[in-house]
């Protein structure tokens, strides 16, 4: 039993708390009070003072600071098929040369755009975990050449992707359904920006964009992998702004789990994203850290030391000293709509803590005269609630499912198409 618990949750240290009665009393930082004690009275105070201050605090203590876009970045059309998926879509592949030179880092974007579209379409944009070729069995998708977590072809385990992994993640990317609902899908592999392991930064943008390359020694406030992935989402947006088939004012950012944390941070920093969706992002994402339910800061730092900035390590078992909490990350989306999806069996991510972050982000939406969640009670399993802050907790486990997608498509329809 002990072995099981260690496998499912912590690698070492105390067992996670899954008992609501053991959640300690906690006091959240007030999103409407500046660090010097000045209250935020209106939108102007929020936009001019508190919002920049919160962004700064999240950079300084949680995700780390990222550089601006490199000046020489350019895009190259790498493939196009106007009759992909049996004639349902245009499949477009574009390479973003992030530093300008072909020896530098690159990010491969995969776009599916609905056929029969009239004019630019709204799109969902999200990073994937294992390569673009894993989101759909479509044999036309180029197989990633970047480092991947073990790709098993027969008995061989390798960090080079093979055709064996085509469509592996297809259940998380209902491409045909997204197209049918009138949206395009844009995705890229997070490993193009940084392979997801502690030494991965040496193969990614954090080394490539640093003057001292792989010898770089990170200051406590410099970017971690999540900030690097989020930075890449903004570079994808740079491209989308120039693609005539995409409506760049209607880009819905979506991410699952660690990539949900990433979507939230990218959406907080970059207001070009129209809607932000966090699917089960948990600790370090939408879940209130002060609840100490399920995963905690110490778990993240121990298992994924590369995800957050150096200073975040000083908050192990010191949640109350962190100057921010997840409700303020959600509030940074305001007045844009944000949706938080949880799953009832995903206790590690603290579904209720994710809901409460939405509740406590509401005062900021009210500054804009907008209704956030509109409820304070955790809704029953399977019911979607909320206006500008959407929320659901569905049956089942940690995953991104077709059911989640239907809720996100409905939410996008309401806000982007007045349906
Ligand atoms: C681990 C990690 C979570 C993360 C998840 C995922 O469970 O502890 O913080 O969200 O992986 O990305 O799937």
Could you explain the architecture of this structure?
This protein has one domain (35-416): Alpha/Beta hydrolase fold, catalytic domain (Rossmann fold), CATH 3.40.50.1820. The strands form 2 sheets. It has a 9-stranded mixed beta sheet with strand order 1-2-3-7-4-8-9-10-11, sandwiched between helices. A two-stranded antiparallel sheet has the order 5-6. The chain has helices at residues 2-8, 43-63, 84-87, 175-180, 190-193, 205-208, 225-240, 258-269, 297-303, 326-331, 351-367, 402-416, and strands spanning 74-83, 89-97, 106-114, 121-128, 151-153, 156-158, 184-189, 246-256, 275-279, 338-343, 389-394. 47% of the residues are buried. With 419 residues, it is of the alpha/beta class. The protein is globular and about 55 Å long. The structure holds alpha-D-glucopyranuronic acid.
Q: How is the largest sheet built, in terms of strand order?
A: 1-2-3-7-4-8-9-10-11
Total of DSSP H or I helical runs spanning 4+ residues: 12
Low-confidence stretches: 1-12
**What fraction, in percent, of the residue positions are helical?**
25-40%
Give the overall form: globular
The CATH architecture would be 3-Layer(aba) Sandwich
Number of strands: 11
Which terms would index this structure?
18% strand; 12 helices; alpha/beta; 9-stranded mixed beta sheet; 419 residues; Rossmann fold; binds alpha-D-glucopyranuronic acid
